[in-house]
Specification:
Blueprint (H helix, E strand, L loop, with lengths): L3 H33 L8 E6 L2 E6 L2 H19 L3 E10 L5 E12 L10 E2 L10 E2 L7 H17 L11 E9 L10 E2 L9 E4 L3 E2 L3 E9 L4
Parallel strand pairs: 4-6
Antiparallel strand pairs: 1-2, 3-4, 3-7, 4-11, 5-7, 5-8, 9-11, 10-11
Length: about 220
């Protein structure tokens, strides 16, 4: 019979494995959004195989360095069960207006988040809701991959209803993390960067045995 200590160790390893899956998903999500929404030219991306799909990732040194810096910190927070949301905001360079906002909410099964959070970004944002969820049945790696694959197909298909981004745009990544999270000096406070008078579309979720990720894209209606 397993001791409680062994069970706790097994759970910790499972949670870490699940955190790695979600972190990788975030990294490919950021790249996919930048490519699909034309934030950078298509020639600045290279194709890689992931989730049984051809994924486009940035080959631009500055963008790669920025995403790497985000992911290094993000993985620490994920492994520590500190994150409740990651947000990718697309902003017009000309007007400074936020034109599109992709929010990925993270629920950790069995975690009750009672500590309040602040908002940060590197843009980073720190904030947290009550991320309590019922335990999910065990899932195979293939089942998880199929759910992630379906979500990426939906993100790609979203160009059919999202307005064209005519002007030059830039992007920022915001993270909602628990208030007691250690925050690197280069990460600053941020507001939520909501889309004023925007439309919202909820995409399909995916889940592991430890996490559930729900996606909402908000966008400004074309005038």
């Amino acid at each position: 019979m397993s001791s409680k200590k062994e069970q706790a160790k097994t759970h910790k390893l499972a949670l870490r494995g699940s955190s790695k899956i979600v972190s990788e998903f975030f990294e490919y999500s950021i790249n996919t959004i930048l490519f699909q929404r034309g934030v950078y030219p298509a020639e600045d991306f290279s194709a890689v195989k992931k989730y049984g799909l051809t994924m486009m990732v940035s080959a631009d040194d500055q963008v790669k360095a920025y995403i790497k810096k985000i992911m290094t910190q993000l993985k620490d927070w994920m492994y520590g069960s500190k994150i409740s949301s990651l947000v990718v905001v697309i902003t017009s360079k000309e007007t400074g207006e936020n034109v599109e906002r992709w929010q990925f909410d993270v629920n950790i099964y069995g975690k009750s988040s009672k500590s309040k959070s602040s908002k940060k970004s590197t843009d980073k944002e720190n904030s947290s809701g009550d991320a309590t969820a019922e335990a999910e049945p065990e899932k195979t790696d293939q089942e998880i991959q199929q759910e992630i694959q379906a979500l990426f197909r939906q993100i790609t298909a979203s160009v059919s209803f999202l307005p064209m981004l005519d002007a030059d745009c830039t992007f920022n990544v915001l993270v909602y993390a628990d208030a007691d999270s250690e925050v690197p000096a280069e990460w600053g406070d941020s507001d939520a960067r909501e889309i004023k008078n925007g439309e919202k579309v909820k995409l399909r979720p995916f889940s592991t045995s430890n996490h559930k990720v729900e996606t909402i894209v908000s966008y400004r209606l074309a005038e």
